[in-house]
From TrEMBL, chain A:
It comes from the Eukaryota. The gene is LOC107929026. Belongs to the Aux/IAA family. Residues 119-159, 176-213 are annotated as: Disordered. Residues 218-311 form the PB1 domain. Residues 125-136 have a biased composition (Polar residues). InterPro entries: AUX/IAA_dom, AUX_IAA, PB1-like. Residues 181-191, 200-212 have a biased composition (Basic and acidic residues). One of its GO terms (cellular component) is nucleus. It comes from Gossypium hirsutum. This is Auxin-responsive protein. Homodimers and heterodimers. PROSITE patterns: PB1.
Automatic annotation (TrEMBL), chain B:
It is found in: Nucleus. GO terms for molecular function: auxin binding. This is F-box domain-containing protein. Keywords: Auxin signaling pathway, Developmental protein, Nucleus, Ubl conjugation pathway. Pathway: Protein modification; protein ubiquitination. Gene3D superfamilies: 1.20.1280.50, Ribonuclease Inhibitor. One of its GO terms (cellular component) is SCF ubiquitin ligase complex. Residues 9-50 form the F-box domain. The lineage of its organism: Eukaryota, Viridiplantae, Streptophyta, Embryophyta, Tracheophyta.
């Protein structure tokens, strides 16, 4: 597709603002304040091909004249702290991941975020280096932990990585789900056998866990709320309980409807029947069910999408679920 | 008095000359030669491309170009494909449609990418543009089959309807029935994204049967295999075909019908679909294989040897999309069979597995780079890489225009030397002088960015994740890459310095995305104050930025140049750092 309506840096640009490019032959001068220290300012001369530091204030480095980025002391120490962290991660990577990134078989279990001393996310391969590289601040750790500090499976994936589009991801999930029911049936055998199989699964970090883990990355599903035209999407991966899912949904929809900050202190109303809305989901067979009936993991395997329905419309759902819900509320997490 | 020469050329002649200039870049260049050329050009421009729907307002476009027949608009940033942009961010097409409805009644082509398109928008399109011929909704969302019904009912001249990768709410499969019986102009139909219940098969059959010019038909997954033969027999003139689900119990009648149907499609060059494919039905397409230039098996869970056998039968392939089930061995066969190959995409079948489930390594890509001299575009997911392999690939393929490598573990080192992959990617940018698009992964230090800044002079789009060590890296890119238009960064330790030092560069680019980096709120505010022609959007779902310190890093940052000023349709979790914001809160 050719580009119209957009002035590139190379051409003189469309009529409108003059665009400064590195290839223009005049200099532009930028005087910047570094926000942390009002007395610290750096004077930069932007010229073709490079950045020249001309002078500075209190902490300014005065090494102008060379092309390339001259940093001052504090910048250098920051750079080296980044480097230190990278080394730390490299160290972890080398000892645990190994050259081919395989799990260290000797320990024989899936390494998760809990194995690493620093509060980071483990990458999706349990034994390979942590994936968060933001400067190790508390904020990064906060970012990486889902809303209610969920399970290792939930923390082991970074949003946006690997860069695979959702429809492709969903199709992979569908491929693996085709295998999953068979795996579950295998487990359903005699009780003793089941226990043994589970032990084995833990010991060799086995493939039997795979279907669940793949299903665990069912990822983003659509949520619609009656009365709100545009639906949202919620990452089921980021939640390990109905409660956390319901609060997230309340935040998403109540906030977008204009309400201010009070909802943060309200307990989840969607699940206990006290609000005028009810949370429902469409399962694999296309039936609409009330959320909360089945164990969380089972819910994850069958949910297709969610709908926040007006309580008055709930009559369409199977009555026994509605009834069961009233008596089983206390059993919810 | 020298002005006489310019004005002595009649406008009609200039207009005639301009009618031969189709490229937008050339038209833009012509329009700034002088005022009269600007005027003449704007009146005869028929086609525009707006790479960022917020960079300019519909009013401004209409004011400058009064008679547009074809428009292409893009909305959300690219990382929205990977769920990094929360729902509700924006990219609404309705304001554009509303304004164009009055201004461009003769609009023929609408192409939208990553935009929110509602049924209301589609209904307005149907009502306003009676001459609409092309509607492409690429990765769009927000509409249902009701909107499609409106288009089907009203757009008598529609040639192309392409919903690729869009999310459509399925309300009824009967929207296809809304194409009147008199409608016969369909040339291209892509409904591959539709879910169950979205397509009434009998309506589809009738539609296909009465459109003799249909050349491209991409079905959705729900169309069963045993219906394909019938459909193909009504459209033997197809050039491009996408199957639905490619799995069924093996039945000899179905098999032979399919084989015959494919055999009769003498012009078929592109195949896709193949969801859930089973090996049993693969041979039905063998008669077509020798002619195939494009094959998309990236949804097909078939493995070797069936997969390799199929590939070996397609010597004319130019474009190949496949899952990593093809393995190194299959890629070696591809390399020896398909000498015309230009584009290769290999997707992971099990991206979250702890252990590799297939034997696909860097060797496959090296083989293809060595065997396919015309290779230009690569997207490759794998689990290991070495600098040596990358250097070899770069030397084999100096003609790369797009190179995207995704190592599933984002910080993995060269598996042989345990070094970062700087040298390897450095070789890519050094040898591939025409490289326009690059995606990096693996363990990468600041050095790779130095190489990129030094060599990647034609690079237009760069995607970076989990790479670099300091702001120096970002500075190398911003100061060195002269052609850079789009830069997207996630989870890198880049902060304020490079950004502030290269603020002017940002006005020469379409956009910059940075998420999970270390850019502080203070820097964003400063950029917002100093650069009025940039929109600095800070995204944070946890709460407004005024509740945090200036030095706190922002969660997501999206910066784009705009002549339209800050937008007004932002959701609660997006704040724009303009002069008002800074003065209000500081």
């Amino acid at each position: 597709m050719s580009e119209n309506g957009e002035g590139g840096g190379r051409t003189r640009g469309h009529m409108g603002p003059i665009i400064i490019t590195p290839s223009t032959t005049f200099f532009s001068l930028l005087i910047l304040h570094l926000t942390q220290n009002p007395y610290n300012f750096l004077l930069f001369l932007v010229m073709e091909g490079g950045l020249v530091l001309l002078g500075g204030g209190a902490n300014g480095g005065g090494s102008g004249g060379s092309s390339g980025f001259s940093t001052n002391e504090s910048a250098m120490s920051e750079a080296s702290s980044y480097l230190a962290e990278t080394e730390l991660e490299l160290g972890l990577g080398l000892s645990i991941g190994g050259p081919t990134g395989k799990i260290n078989k000797a320990s024989g279990r899936i390494l998760t975020a809990k194995d690493f001393p620093v509060p980071r996310r483990a990458s999706m391969n349990g034994g390979t280096p942590p994936s968060v590289t933001v400067s190790g601040t508390k904020r990064a750790a906060d970012q990486s932990v889902p809303h209610d500090g969920g399970s290792p499976t939930a923390t082991s994936q970074v949003v946006g990585w690997p860069p695979i589009r959702s429809y492709r991801m969903n199709s992979l999930v569908n491929n693996n789900q085709a295998k999953a029911p068979r795996a579950e049936e295998e487990h359903k055998g005699i009780n003793e056998e089941e226990e043994e199989e589970e032990d084995k699964a833990i010991k060799d970090g086995s493939k039997q866990k795979k279907p669940n883990e793949n299903l665990g990355h069912i990822g983003f599903i659509k949520v619609n709320m009656d009365g709100i035209r545009i639906g949202r999407k919620v990452d089921l991966n980021a939640h390990s309980s109905y409660h956390s899912l319901a609060s997230a949904l309340e935040n998403m929809f109540v906030r977008s409807a204009g309400a201010e900050k009070q909802q943060l202190t309200m307990p989840s109303k969607l699940l206990d029947g006290s609000s005028e809305f009810v949370l429902t989901y469409e399962d694999k067979e296309g039936d609409w069910m009330l959320v909360g009936d089945v164990p969380w993991m089972m819910f994850l395997t069958s949910v297709r999408r969610l709908r926040i329905m007006k309580t008055s419309e709930v009559n369409g759902l199977a009555p026994r679920f509605h009834e069961r819900n009233r008596t089983q509320r206390s059993k919810l997490i | 008095m020298q002005k006489k020469t310019a004005y002595s050329f009649p406008d009609e002649i200039l207009e005639h000359v301009f009618s031969f200039i189709h490229s937008g870049k050339d038209r833009n260049a012509a329009s700034v030669v002088c005022k009269s050329w600007y005027e003449i050009e704007r009146w005869c421009r028929r086609k525009i491309f707006v790479g960022n729907c917020y960079a300019v307002s519909p009013t401004m476009v209409i004011r400058r170009f009064p008679d547009i027949r074809s428009i292409e608009l893009k909305g959300k940033p690219h990382f929205a494909d990977f769920n990094l942009v929360p729902d509700g961010w924006g990219g609404y097409v309705l304001p554009w449609i509303s304004e164009m409805a009055g201004a461009y009644p003769w609009l023929e082509e609408i192409r939208l990418k990553r935009m929110v398109v509602t049924d209301e928008s589609l209904e307005l399109v149907a009502k306003s543009f009676t001459n609409l011929q092309v509607l492409v909704l690429f990765s769009c969302e927000g509409f249902s089959t009701d909107g499609l019904a409106a288009i089907a009912a009203s757009c008598k001249n529609l040639r192309e309807l392409d919903l690729r990768d869009s999310e459509v709410d399925d309300l009824s499969g009967h929207w296809l029935n809304h194409f009147p019986d008199t409608y016969t102009s369909l040339v291209s139909l892509n409904i591959s994204c539709l879910g169950s219940d979205d397509v009434s098969f009998s309506a589809l059959e009738r539609l296909v049967g009465r459109c003799p010019n249909l050349r491209r038909l991409l079905l959705n997954r729900e169309v069963p295999l045993d219906k394909i033969a019938n459909l193909l027999s009504r459209a033997p003139q197809l050039i491009e075909f996408g199957t639905g689900t490619y799995a069924a119990e093996l039945r000899s009648d179905v098999y032979s019908n399919l084989a015959e149907a494919f055999c009769n499609c003498k012009e078929l060059k592109c195949l896709s679909g193949f969801w859930d494919a089973v090996p049993a039905y693969l041979p039905v397409i063998y008669s077509v294989c020798s002619r195939l230039t494009s094959l998309n098996l990236s949804y097909a869970p078939i493995q070797n040897p069936d997969l390799t056998k199929l590939v070996s039968q397609c010597p004319s392939l130019q474009r190949m999309l496949v899952l990593d089930y093809i393995e190194d061995s299959g890629l070696e066969v591809l390399a020896s069979s398909c000498k015309d190959l230009q584009e290769l995409r290999v997707f992971p079948s099990d991206p979250f597995g702890e252990e590799p489930n297939v034997s696909l390594t860097e060797k496959g890509l090296v083989a293809v780079s060595s065997g396919c001299p015309k290779l230009q575009s690569v997207l490759y997911f794998c689990r290991q890489m070495s600098n040596a392999a990358l250097v070899t690939i770069a030397q084999n393929c100096p003609n790369f225009t797009r190179f995207r490598l995704c190592l599933l573990d984002p910080k993995i080192a060269d598996y042989r030397t345990l070094q970062p992959l700087d040298v390897g990617f450095g070789a890519i940018v050094e040898h591939c002088k025409d490289l326009r698009r690059l995606s990096l992964s693996g363990l990468l230090t600041d050095r790779v960015f130095e190489y990129i800044g030094m060599h990647a002079k034609k690079l237009e789009m760069l995607s970076v994740a989990f790479a670099g060590e300091s702001d120096l890296a970002l500075h190398h890119v911003l100061s060195g890459c002269e052609s850079l238009r789009k830069l997207e960064i996630m989870n890198c330790p880049f902060g304020d310095k490079a950004l502030l030092a290269n603020a002017a560069k940002l006005e020469t680019m379409r956009s910059l995305w940075m998420s999970s980096c270390s850019v502080s709120l203070g820097a964003c505010k400063m950029l917002g104050q100093k650069m009025p022609r940039l929109n600095i959007e800070v995204m944070d779902e946890k709460g407004p930025p005024d509740s945090r310190a200036e030095s706190d890093p922002v969660d997501k940052l999206y910066i784009y140049r705009s002549v339209a000023g800050p937008r007004f349709d932002m959701p609660p979790f997006v704040w724009t750092m303009d002069e008002d914001f800074a003065s209000e809160l500081s």
